[in-house]
Every structure is written in structure tokens, then in C-alpha cells.
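sry for the spam today, last one i promise. C-alpha cells for design, 398 residues
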């Protein structure tokens, strides 16, 4: 929206000054905004990206947009010469995958073309979140992010965006993005903000001769969806020629001397440490889960190997962590486990519907799917079956 815009956070209102009486939503936002009645003079928006999830959206504070004459709107108290972006920091905030999928990547799509000259007006602002992801936010705006709920002043702008643009899971459709920004651009943006040195993964034909082996990062989990035979996986990978590290990427960064650093920065140092760690590797291996979000820090041409647990999770796994690597010029391998490789085989008898027909469980409720397939399941890989996957990952680095 462009023009004279006044925003009062304490009442969650955005006033758009209209040049004449009778102006409607169709005149302001265009005919393509089919979710608003064309003749409306006010409408509510929930500025969060998970529109299809009613349970989450019920917790998102709505913003009311009003078309008004100058004498109907509150007077300006603070003038700004940069555009505003109004959005919510609620919802799934705190889940690592959703922090990137619902907030960071949509923020990048919405604001990157503005070159830092934009102000974030945040509903349900989480101060710790802006601490943890300070490097990223600082690359998108040079201006203070306002806590819109706690600010009773009327802020005035000439241009404003209510809500963030979102295209698909953990990725960008450059055809729909301002300036056609892509996930490759996003990857380079992260490299800049975290000073990551490696833009491209090893090419084994060129570099093994120099003495460096390709590096494999196995992301471990503290609770469910763990690798139960991690030692076997490490041994097989090393035998093939990988230099292997297993890490949950959640441990605090280290001080000199190897002690864990006690840093009260909301997680900012941990993000810097995790991004640098991941960028040093050529292949990432993990069971489906939020730890795979760290693939955004891998160098281009790296390989992502996702192990998908039982439960008809293949499509979800592909959407969330299979498409994004390809959009970032990386390679992707998906390994779908068998019933024999799942610890669910220790909880349910052979032939149980949990193995044979997950469909009714999906139809019953997502919470039941999470409880059984994501909450009760670990994996024990069949190394005769999985070893060729490690070999393929190695071959893809050539």
C-alpha cells in the first residue's frame, strides 16, 4: 500500500488516507486481492504466513486496515521516510524450521529489494528472537524493529506492507519475488551476514589429491528420530573416504580451552557457531526434523541426505527438505526406511496398521501422526541397504 499511511500499534490499526470519499479496497489493493471484498472500506489481516493452519492462526493478533479521510484518522506523532512492514512474530516462533520458513525467508522476500531502508513493525514481538537472529535482521534493515503492541504512538509512512510474502516450504519462487531474488541469493546473503568462507563444496576429483577428504556432518538428535547405530554409520562413511563429524549443533559455542561459553545473547553466538560448523562440510546426513534446516549454511554443490521415517512422510519430507537444496544449487538424496529399520517394530507387531496403512492415522489427526511417527520412532539403518547411499553422496561431489 502506498500513500499517506498511519499505524497505531496499541489498537492494531493501519489507516490508509484516501484522496476522495467512496474509495474502496479494490482501489487500494487491486482486483487481485480476492480475499477482500472489492467494496470494503475496512478489513482484518493476520500478518503471519501459515494461513491454512487454523489452530496457529487463532493465536495471531489481527490488524485492521481502514480507509479514512485525513480528519477521521489519528494525527501523526512520528514521521518516517522509509517503508514499513507489519507482521507477527507469534505462531511457531521458537521452532527452528519455522523460524526460517515462516519468518526469515518471508522477511528476505519482502524486504531484500529495499536495501535495508525499511522498518519492521512487529506484532507479538519476541525480544530473544531478534537477539538470536540479529545478524540476519541487521542485514535486512538498518532501522530499529518496533514492538507494535507496546507502542501507543501513531507512526506515519508513505508506503507499508501488511504481512510477509511466502511462496513454498523453506524456499523462494524467483518468478514471484521482487527483483527475482532466489534461494541462491538467500544463501549468499547468509554467507555475507555470518562471514562464511566456503561458497562451493569440495570437488573430489580436484581436491582429494591435495590431501583433504570430503567432510560428512551427521546431525544427531537428543530425543526421538535418533540414529540407533550411529557407530556403524560413521564406520561405513569413513571406510568410503569421508571425514565424519556427528553433532546436534545445539551445544553452546566453545571458549578458548574448550569450555562451554556462558553467553547470554539470546542464541546469537550459537547461531554464528552453528553456521560456521555447517559451512565447513560437504555432505549433511540427518533424519527428518528441524535440524535439517541448517542445510541453508552448506556450501553450494554440497549434498543433503535425508532419512525419512515410517508413516507416509515421504511427500512432506520432500517438500520441506528435498526441494530447498535443489533451489540452492545443492544435491539431494532421500532415503526412505523400511519397517525393519524403524524402532516402531519393537512397539507394534508385524502387520499392524501403523506399518501397513498410515492413511487413516493421517486422516484422524496430525497430532496422532506426530505422536506415533515423529514422537515414538528411532531408526536403525540397514547398512547393506544404506551404504550405497553414502557412496552416491560421495560420487555426487565429483
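last one done:
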Amino acid at each position: 500500500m502506498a500513500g499517506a499511511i498511519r499505524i497505531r500499534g496499541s489498537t492494531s490499526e493501519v489507516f490508509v488516507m484516501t484522496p476522495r470519499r467512496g474509495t474502496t479496497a479494490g482501489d487500494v489493493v487491486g482486483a487481485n486481492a480476492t480475499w477482500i471484498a472489492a467494496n470494503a472500506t475496512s478489513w482484518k489481516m493476520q500478518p503471519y504466513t501459515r494461513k491454512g493452519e487454523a489452530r496457529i492462526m487463532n493465536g495471531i493478533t489481527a490488524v485492521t486496515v481502514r480507509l479514512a479521510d485525513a480528519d477521521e484518522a489519528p494525527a501523526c506523532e512520528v514521521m518516517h521516510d522509509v517503508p514499513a512492514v507489519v507482521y507477527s512474530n507469534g505462531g511457531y516462533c521458537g521452532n527452528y524450521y519455522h523460524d526460517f520458513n515462516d519468518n526469515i525467508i518471508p522477511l528476505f522476500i519482502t524486504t531484500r529489494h529495499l536495501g535495508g531502508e525499511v522498518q519492521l513493525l512487529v506484532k507479538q514481538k519476541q525480544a530473544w528472537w531478534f537477539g538470536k537472529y540479529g545478524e540476519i535482521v541487521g542485514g535486512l534493515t538498518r532501522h530499529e524493529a518496533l514492538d507494535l503492541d507496546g507502542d501507543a504512538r501513531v507512526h506515519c509512512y508513505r508506503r507499508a506492507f501488511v504481512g510477509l510474502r511466502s511462496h513454498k516450504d523453506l524456499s523462494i519462487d524467483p518468478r514471484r519475488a521482487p527483483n527475482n531474488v532466489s534461494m541462491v541469493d538467500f544463501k549468499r546473503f547468509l554467507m555475507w551476514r555470518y562471514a562464511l568462507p566456503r561458497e562451493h563444496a569440495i570437488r573430489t576429483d580436484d581436491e582429494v589429491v591435495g590431501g583433504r577428504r570430503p567432510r560428512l556432518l551427521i546431525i544427531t538428535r537428543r530425543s526421538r528420530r535418533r540414529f540407533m547405530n550411529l557407530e556403524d554409520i560413521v564406520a561405513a562413511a569413513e571406510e568410503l573416504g569421508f571425514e565424519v563429524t556427528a553433532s546436534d549443533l545445539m551445544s553452546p559455542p566453545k571458549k578458548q580451552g574448550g569450555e562451554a561459553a556462558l553467553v547470554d545473547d539470546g542464541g546469537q553466538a550459537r547461531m554464528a557457531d552453528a553456521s560456521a560448523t555447517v559451512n565447513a562440510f560437504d555432505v549433511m546426513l540427518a533424519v527428518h526434523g528441524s535440524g535439517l534446516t541448517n542445510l541453508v549454511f552448506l556450501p553450494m554443490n554440497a549434498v543433503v541426505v535425508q532419512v525419512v521415517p515410517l508413516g507416509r512422510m515421504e511427500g512432506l519430507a520432500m517438500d520441506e527438505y528435498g526441494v530447498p537444496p535443489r533451489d540452492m544449487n545443492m544435491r539431494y538424496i532421500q532415503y526412505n526406511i523400511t519397517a525393519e529399520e524403524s524402532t516402531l517394530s519393537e512397539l507394534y507387531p508385524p502387520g499392524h496398521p501403523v506399518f501397513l496403512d498410515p492413511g487413516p492415522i493421517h486422516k484422524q489427526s496430525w497430532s496422532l501422526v506426530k505422536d506415533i511417527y515423529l514422537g515414538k520412532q528411532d531408526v536403525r539403518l540397514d547398512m547393506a541397504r544404506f551404504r550405497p547411499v553414502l557412496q552416491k553422496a560421495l560420487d555426487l561431489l565429483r
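Residues 260-264 have pLDDT under 50 and may be disordered. ok im logging off now
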